[in-house]
Specification:
D-xylose 1-dehydrogenase (NADP(+), D-xylono-1,5-lactone-forming); oxidoreductase; 8 helices; 2 domains; globular; Rossmann fold; EC 1.1.1.179; six-stranded parallel β-sheet; Gfo/Idh/MocA_domain; alpha/beta; 6 strands; D-xylose 1-dehydrogenase (NADP+) activity
């Protein structure tokens, strides 16, 4: 996976690369019926060759509500039951990231191609296991890192990996956005609802976020000084 990403993307006018709107039809099944899956389902509407044929949640009524909202024919209250559906080609997994390995494994063992919402896994060994299983069963498996396919990022990769005029340099890229939204109380998980709950789960996130922001600012300031010098 890393080696593939370290090769330049094909040219923008490469005739051998199929246009997304001309790809073969794909029938999707969605696991997880929360906000992220809602956004994915909305985006998928713009691909005429893609269709969502089923969705699944831990509670059937929630899956049915999601299905009604997005015009999905089948709703399941059990992940395993949905994975038995022969009408599904590929599964998008958008539930809690702590279950990425177990759900990803179920999908691959059911011979379904898989798109796992980021983060791909919580541990390196989980990611390596899933990649190995997908390769062994000749199935497609990818993390849903959508920014990877931004045209601007694709062009940046061409310049960095393919070279432009042979000169070397450095650049600093930053991508962010501000979004105002309301959070449903259904999205809030209490410790009782999380079997993997520990104090670290509640502390680790905010601490990592603060450390990330501080390090990013220090790095940006240092790099700016180096470039100015």
């Amino acid at each position: 996976m890393g080696e593939e990403y370290n090769t330049p993307p094909p040219p923008l006018d490469d005739p051998t690369v199929a246009h997304p709107l001309e790809c073969p039809p794909l029938r999707w099944g969605l696991i997880g019926c929360g906000r992220v899956s809602h956004d994915f389902a909305q985006a998928l509407r713009h691909i005429p060759t893609a269709s969502i044929v089923a969705c699944a949640a831990r509670e059937l009524d929630r899956a049915q509500e999601f299905a009604t909202k997005h015009g999905i024919v089948k709703a399941y209250g059990d992940y395993d039951e949905m994975l038995k559906d022969p009408a599904i080609d590929v599964v998008y997994v958008g539930n809690l990231h702590a279950f990425r390995r177990s759900i990803g494994e179920k999908c691959l063992l059911a011979n379904k191609h898989v798109l796992l919402e980021k983060p791909f896994a919580c541990k390196l060994e989980d990611a390596e296991y899933l990649c190995g299983l997908a390769k062994e069963r000749n199935l497609f498996l990818m993390e849903g890192m959508w920014t990877r396919f931004f045209p601007a990022l694709e062009q940046a990769r061409r310049l960095v990996l393919g070279g432009s005029d042979g000169t070397k340099g450095a650049f600093l890229e930053k991508f962010q956005w501000f979004k105002v939204t309301s959070i449903s109380m259904q999205a809030i998980r209490t410790p009782i609802q999380l079997p993997f709950f520990t104090i670290e789960n509640w502390v680790e996130g905010p601490v990592c976020w603060l450390v990330h922001i501080l390090l990013q600012q220090l790095y940006s300031s240092f790099l700016a000084l180096v470039l100015i010098k």
